Write the structure tokens for this entry.
Amino acid sequence: MHRMLLIARREILAYAAVPSFWVALAMGPILMVLGGLAAGSVAQRPPAAVAPRLVVVDAADPGLKRVAVRALSDAAALEGRGLTVLQSHDSMPIDATRVTLSVAGRGQVTVRTDGATLPAAAQALMRRDLERTAARDLARAAGAPEQALSAGDLAHVQLEPPPVAAPASPAGDGRFGRFAVVVLLWMNLVGALGMLLQALVRERANRALESLLASARASEIIFGKLIGVGGLSLFVLAVWLGAGALVAASPLVGRGSGMTGQILGAFADARSLGFATVMFVAAFAMYGTALIGLGALARDVPAAQNLSRPVFGVLLLVFFVSLAQLTGGAGAGMSWLAWVPLFTPFVALMAEPGSIGPGTMAAGLLEMAVATALCARLASLVLRDQPLSRALARPGRGRGATA
Amino acid sequence: MEYVRTAPSALKVSGLVKEYLGGRGVHDVSLSVAPGSVVGFIGANGAGKSTTLKCIVGLLEPDRGSVELFGERVSFQRRQRLGYLPEERGIAPKERARDVIAFHARLKGFDAKSAYRAADRLLERIGLEGRTRARVCELSKGNAQRVQILCAIAHNPDLLILDEPFSGLDPIAQAEVQSLFSEYRSKGGAILFSTHAMASAERLCDEVVIVAEGRTAFQGPIEAAATHAEHGVFVTCGDEAGLLMVVRKLGGEAHAFPGKMGEALRWRVVLPTSVPYPALMRAMAEAGLPVQGFEPMRADLEGAFWSLSAARREAA
């Protein structure tokens, strides 16, 4: 343990002594603050006027419906801002505002809208035309001359404003927020693995590894490096996530309910951040031990880069799977990948809360732990012995030596 | 000459085998190092010296054979009493000399305070007290190498395993390092070091182990090794047929070294002890052979090395 921590400390000092490390560390919070401020300024700006698309729905009184459509069409001509009145035979877009007419009693017409508020001209024209029509209908029904009736007394049109939508959950369905956390984790993981590979290959190439191996166990070197580089990367991740959380909590930053709101919501969620941290540690341990094994096979940097390509290829695949989960479609049914250790952390982070049960999650983590132990064992063998020659040596060569 | 020891060896290697693909490696190496003694490990390039040392310090796992340290079977804990200098030097170039020495001492169990105290003392000992804050990459090659030697001895090991400790050092640095080893030895430490430099071995060693073709050819004191030196001459001569005829006539044997020197070929000529060198010289002159070089083998370690190495090569 003592040697492992010494090696870890050495790795930390080797990287922390380089100014570029601190520059890279500061970049995350700076970008997050800038992004948050930008999001805040966008949120504080009054929303741009939306040109509503209206569709009038009335199954009970086609006459009133025709009047309403005509009134709205006149209003659209007056508004000249793109107010569109859709005819019933048009295909209705998902964001169209439904204008529903209902006749509550004699001369009582209620108009409800479920989306955008109607422009003032549309409200006025529709109220006037509907009242007139309703009054005429009443007069006809009563057999009285139209002029004898006071429309205001007998007909009443009530325009109900659209219901106020409940404030969106900060994270909405949270997909963007989860993806932001995955991206952050992925970036840190790739960066940390690169550092780890470099740390090993550098010592392999300059022969410092031999001196180290003469003084420490291979497992101590492997886990020392993992702890050192991993601890440093975790520190970077914590600073970045912490900066994200501070930005999300800042009153200067507007959240909204869109993508920005989801992302900031994810950063404000302590459980989500804690889970991401656990997944980062598990992923780094597993990928890291695999990479150390491959790095130990290499004699120089080009060989290490060639050997490590499959690992980074897998990480790229993992990223695309997360992207597929973000966009839905093919990604929707990918939760089974949580059983595959290479994908477990990312699939688990991208999955909707509750969609992966604790049993599956625990099994996934257990598999990752087993994979880590296996990779560490192989890496230890590779570090201690000349692996290729050993693998190609006479079959059946036993460990007959007593050394 | 047989050597009989009573005290347990600091190191005892028996029948060590470690074979690489293609048949290289060590096939049967045995050696021992007595406590407080200095043993030179001599062999040609590729004879198996570094492989043996790596097996001893645990960098390689032998296929067969045994390694005992301080009278007991080797283990990681016992290896903590070793100091090791690898053949291909390598210490983190960006680290400070003082830190890197202390780091190695701490790996071997020193606490931070003792480790830095040892580092300071050793740096002062080799005259680098003013450069404790210097990074290894800022030091000269010789100084960097001396720092690496200090890494090996900082924790006061009971046995030092050094792979070519003098390679790359100028004569002054070599003398300083030899002085360091003498001081270490005076405190009871044992040393096993591989080398090509016979002069260094003769100056420092109580015993030598000569290894050839992956097998131990000899272990014993230098004086005993010298008795194995053949009576013969290194000859450089382009007339192969003529030389062979002359040597045969004198009752000797001629063995060619691989590779040519211009038109001439270098030979190791072994003569019967009754035939003095001038007799060969005279016979070659009478035969009109073109002789570019004529160097009698000395009855010393180098002569023994040639003889024992050649004998092992021929046996193999």
Observations:
- Chain A touches chain B through 32 residues (CB under 8 Å).
- The first helix of chain A runs from residue 2 to 16.
